[in-house]
Amino acid sequence: MEQEVETKIKRIRTELDKVVDFWLKHSHDTVHGGFFTCIGRDGTVYDELKYVWLQGRQVWMYCRLYRTMDRYRRPEILEAAKAGGAFLRRFARVSSSSGQWKCAFCLTRDGKAVKVQRTIFSECFYIMAMDELSRVTGDKDMQLEAEQMMEQLIHWVRVDSSGLGRPQLPGDVATNSMAVPMMLLCLVQQLTEGRGQEVVQKYRELGRWCVQQILQHIQRDGTAILENVSLEGAELPGCQGRLQNPGHALEAGWFLLQYSAEWGDEELQRTAINKFVELPYRCGWDKEHGGLFYFLDVDGHCPTQLEWNMKLWWPHCEALIAFLMAYSQTKKPELLDRFSEVYEYTFSHFSDAKSSEWFGYLTQEGKVALDFKGGPFKGFFHVPRCLYMCERILDDVLANKD
Questions:
Q1: pLDDT tens-digit profile of 358-383?
Q2: Residue % of the chain over a pLDDT of 70
Q3: What would the pLDDT profile of 152-191 be if each residue is shown by its tens digit?
Q4: pLDDT at 402 (0 to 100)
Q5: Cα–Cα distance, 113 to 122 (Å, whole number)
Q6: Belongs to which family (predicted)?
Q7: Rg of the chain, C-alpha, whole Å
Q8: Quick one: which of 221, 223, 326 has its CA closest to 269?
Q9: Residue 333's pLDDT is what?
Q10: How far apart are CA 60 and CA 81, in angstroms?
Q11: Is the pLDDT of residue 197 over 80?
């Protein structure tokens, strides 16, 4: 097993270096700041719009690599992160009608707001970027800014959502969408990492709340993870209620594994592995062609999402992290076997042997459907985060093999 692990580490390390080099070379806007994300297979920028989710994610990823991995502690990475952070601080925030700060979803190349979403996710990735950037620059104002925006998010989610700008319509049923508590739990982990007990305790109750909200998505007597449930944790009617997103469930799984490790919660660890790692894999893996379906209907109806049977890059990234983290915490060999199965599919289908970076969108049969390397939703985040985390976990597995 040791030789197999070493071979995987070498491949993962090489892939990560290639991915980092691709974005360093092709994504930086040296005129207006920030990052291009709509990048073709050959590195050509095919659209200059800048997406705030992806701007924040790229700042976060650069900073995390710079802060925690010696080979990436390079001046050009730090300077790129700082330039991206400056672009975000200057242009991403737009004042809403309620007087609260809302972040745009999409900006022109020179920073003019194009679109604002009535969700919390642009703000989430703004917080991630500012907090991580504050850690590498020592800028306390950035850290304070991240914490202030976090308080606004908590208010929107738990007290009054009117600041998001969504009209209250009579037929619109309030839902617990798994993405919301997942992202808040991710932010709790981001803001508290290494900050000391005062900060940890500040977000302790919110972390517990997020975990309980995520666990509400275990439905059908523990046989399914559903993407949307009622505020009371009951199944919703129709397509929305039957929707399954295996990649999202797997990502929630490793978020819960991190939380359970931090707080020593063995019961939560078992639930995370059984219900949010192994169950979505069993339900979501295409037994004919391999790979994870993007969406499923729990009752077997055809999902209404047109791309439901495609194989996308990010669910496979989440599966790799989830199975490897589960193995590292339990040392159960079947979990490492699952990681290896996902690894073989992922590296043989998404990785581009002729160029750098990964393809993002495959047909059900595993053929490349869209050959660009970056777009409105695929940036410098899921692939490098996956490779970074897998490299670190495997290094730890080897170091503690006895």
A1: 999 999 999 999 999 999 999 999 99
A2: 99
A3: 999 999 999 988 988 889 999 899 999 999 999 999 999 9
A4: 67
A5: 13
A6: Belongs to the N-acylglucosamine 2-epimerase family.
A7: 20
A8: 326
A9: 96
A10: 8
A11: yes
As to burial, measured by CB atoms within 10 angstroms (0-12 exposed, 13-18 middle, 19+ buried), residue 194 is exposed
Asked if the model's pLDDT at residue 316 lies above 90, the reply is yes
Please, what is the average pLDDT of the chain? 96
Structure tokens at 111: 């920073």
Query: For residue 137, what are its two tokens?
Result: 């620059």
CATH number of 176-371: 1.50.10.10
pLDDT at 98 over 70: no
Q: What is the pLDDT of residues 209-219, one digit of tens each?
A: 999 999 999 99
One-letter-per-residue 3-state SS of the chain: CHHHHHHHHHHHHHHHHHHHHHHHHHCECCCCCCECCEECCCCCEEECCEEHHHHHHHHHHHHHHHHHCHHHCCHHHHHHHHHHHHHHHHHCEEECCCCCEEECCEECCCCCEEECCCCCHHHHHHHHHHHHHHHHHCCHHHHHHHHHHHHHHHHHHHCCHHHHCCCCCCCCCCEEECHHHHHHHHHHHHHHCCCCHHHHHHCHHHHHHHHHHHHCCEECCCCEECCEEECCCCECCHHHHHEECHHHHHHHHHHHHHHHHHHCCHHHHHHHHHHHHHHHHHHHECCCCCCECCCEECCCCCCCCCCCCCEEHHHHHHHHHHHHHHHHHHCCHHHHHHHHHHHHHHHHHCECCCCCCECCEECCCCCEEECCCECCCCCCCHHHHHHHHHHHHHHHHHHCCC
Cα gap 310→201, rounded to integer Å: 42
Query: For residues 308 and 76, what is the distance between their CA atoms, to the nearest angstrom?
Result: 39
Number of Cα atoms under 13 Å in the Cβ half of residue 23: 32
Mean pLDDT of 78-85: 98
Question: Which two tokens mark 86?
Answer: 């400056």
* CA–CA gap between residue 166 and residue 154 (Å, rounded): 16
Domain map of the chain by residue range?
A: 176-371
Q: What's the pLDDT tens digit per position in 21-51?
A: 999 999 999 999 999 999 999 999 999 999 9
In 3D, which of 123, 238, 224 has the Cα closest to residue 178?
A: 224
Contacts of 87 (CB under 8 A, 6+ apart): 32, 33, 34, 50, 55, 111
Residue 356 has a pLDDT of 87
